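Below is the record:
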Amino acid sequence: MHPAPAPDAQRYHHLDAARALFMLLGIPFHASLAFAGGHWLVMSGAHDPLLSLIPPVLSDFRMPGFFVIAGFFAALLLERRSRGEWLKGRIERLGLPLTVGIATIVPVQAAILAHAPAGIVDGEATHDFLSHLWFLPVLILLCLLLSAVWPLVVRVRKVPVPGVITLGLGFAAYELALFALEHILHSDLSFLGGLVDLGRLAIYLPFFAVGVALRRSRALWARFSALDPAVPTIGLVALLLHVGLWQDQSRIGIALDLAFDGLASLCLTQTILALLVKIARRPSARIDRLVDASFTIYLLHHPVVVALAILCVWAALPPLLSWSAICLAAFVLPYAAHRVLRRSPLALWLFNGVRPKERGWGLLVRAREGAPA
């Protein structure tokens, strides 16, 4: 394989947009869970037919797409740095926000849950010290794995690249294999309170690997950049079947659901990336602002969603109105917080893992020149 050609020597604007999109979709996803009729941190007791569609639809491609993008940028940075320097930077970039989030954001959320009216929340959720930050330790483990196998990766010169649909079918088979393995092992693969979650690691490893291959293979880059009508068609059909089987708890239903989920995940991720090549390939100040704020918004949105969901359920507001208000507030409030945080190099370092590039660690140090405003 060879590094894929960059459309821009400095920035992959459509991939930055995709990363922000996948992170920001966490807001409508989490906001819908309280009203979808399932078991979550906050439970309204309602089962809104429209909002109940959001979790299976967004879960199909949101985090898979995120890990594809993460794999691409991991390989891109690793090409430019030594493995030690790169890994140190990844640990800082991911581990510092994880530590700060566990120490500040998650306890605030636990306090909100602990003081909620009885019968609205899951009391056990107050003991989950990772919550929505689970993806950070998974990503750290994936970076450790990539660092270990990188000498082998760079030796690969040319391998056959399957079509997107064929690759999606491979992902479907992989999901079925994981399902079978889970029933064979009959054991919890999560350790240290979720800091080492081998189950999630296994689920997202192929998507991260596709991201790495996307950077290294010109052929795969070309296929993920082109919009083939057959791919979204098959992806949407698989998504509909996945949604239809979402509540089926039989073994056959779960197996089929996972297979359609694997196929739809890859097809829809490729479709979104190909669409963004067309509409977000050039610099945009508005998109840059969202890209700049997306990580902070994701870190901070979850306690906002939990608090407002409790309030809406307590006030017996209509589910769709509640969801809309929660989505708006869970974007605006964390975005405003990010605008404050980014004025402080220390705050930006703690919550985003971005090392300060200027002198001054005061609370209101001016944002550095050239950063998105």
Remarks:
- Residues 342-373 form one domain.
- The first helix runs from residue 13 to 24.
